[in-house]
Design a protein that fits this description.
Layout: H1 3-15, H2 21-26, E1 29-31, E2 37-41, E3 44-48, E4 65-69, E5 73-76, H3 82-89, H4 108-122, E6 127-128, H5 132-140, E7 192-198, H6 203-206, E8 220-224, E9 240-244, E10 252-253, E11 257-258
Parallel strand pairs: 7-10
Antiparallel strand pairs: 1-2, 2-5, 3-4, 5-11, 6-11, 7-8, 8-9
């Protein structure tokens, strides 16, 4: 075993994270029992939110504020696919059928039903939706710009499916566009992604700087990243929208995170 692989395994054991031959081979990724691939996201610091002087941003994305994530976590390399959904739930709610297409027409509540059953299947309780801060941190992948690849909006079509006509457009198989610097695909476009947090209109002005988890209560949850029919302004790292936890649409999906403990 190479020294770097050995050290990684020791770190995973210390964190209480599972590892397999896939992890040993790839070192920073692993694949679970239904083929979901995960990327290890390091702990770190970033500036959350948008600067309205440089982005076509809404008031929901301000003010910009420093955030520290004190623990590493795993995040799905791709949005949850229809094949993975069916493996756990047994039926497919999606309008645009395709095994490798992201599951859609799922609510926040639906996403957590899937996650709870996946936890049961794998014998632990660490699968969950990412927090909003974790999602944005992973989306930025070390960049402080509008996008993970910089501020050049014309390059977005290399990374995202977006801006399609509602009547003729659809979702697309995951992973067909370029990944960000941390190896995550479709963080912009394809389907909006539910995150764990309740939505709070003033939360950005009062949230803690370390490991924010959203308001304690609310009536709506946050979705991130834009979808296949979204305007370009919604497909940014800081973009955020709020919807009721039971709302479903053809461009609403999710990706899964794993807690380190």
């Amino acid at each position: 075993m190479r020294r770097s692989t050995h050290l990684l395994c020791l770190c995973l054991l210390c964190l209480g994270l599972p590892f397999s031959s896939t992890v040993l081979a790839a070192e920073s990724t692993f694949t679970n029992s239904i083929g979901m691939e995960f990327v290890l996201i390091p702990a770190g610091h970033f500036t959350m939110g948008a600067d309205k002087n440089f982005e076509d941003a809404s008031d929901l994305e301000t003010p910009r504020h420093p955030v520290t994530l004190t623990k590493a976590f795993y995040l799905g390399k791709y949005e949850v696919t229809q094949a993975q959904w069916v493996a756990i739930m047994g039926k497919n709610p999606s309008k645009f059928k395709g095994r490798s297409n992201p599951v859609e027409q799922v609510s926040w509540e639906d996403a957590y039903e899937f996650i709870n059953l996946l936890n049961v299947k794998e014998g632990h309780n660490r699968y969950r939706l990412p927090t909003e801060a974790e999602w944005e941190y992973a989306s930025r992948a070390g960049s402080d710009a509008t996008y993970s690849f910089g501020d050049y909006a014309a390059a977005l079509n290399q990374y995202a499916w977006f801006g399609e006509d509602y009547a003729s457009g659809s979702t697309h198989p995951v992973g067909e566009k370029l990944p960000n610097a941390w190896g995550l695909y479709d963080m912009y476009g394809n389907v909006w992604e539910w995150v764990h947090d309740w939505y709070g209109e003033t939360y950005y002005r009062t949230s803690p700087n370390s490991d924010p988890k959203g308001p304690d209560t609310g009536t709506e949850h946050v979705r991130r990243g834009g979808g296949w029919r979204s305007h370009i302004k919604y497909c940014r790292s800081a973009s955020r929208m709020n919807y009721s936890l039971g709302y479903r649409n053809t461009d609403f999906g999710f990706r899964v995170a794993i807690s380190p403990e």
